[in-house]
Amino acid sequence: VDFLQKKPQGVILESNVIKGDDFCMDAGIYEFTMGATGDKVKARYTYVYNYEDGQWKIAHHHSSIMPSVHL
Predict the structure, then answer these.
(1) What is the pTM of this model?
(2) CA-based angle 1:32:16, to the nearest 5?
């Protein structure tokens, strides 16, 4: 709920799509800009879709914030 209160707007930066006969997977990176604060957050995502009853339906979704890089 806290996330949605920040009024996020997302943009896909990288996308890798694999499609089968009745499934599709999209994995990549998106970035959200929080409309309430202007903060930007990058995250990895995965969506899995199944084709059922003539429609594409989300079967699975996962997002996680990008880890910090320490060199």
Answers:
(1) 0.79
(2) 115
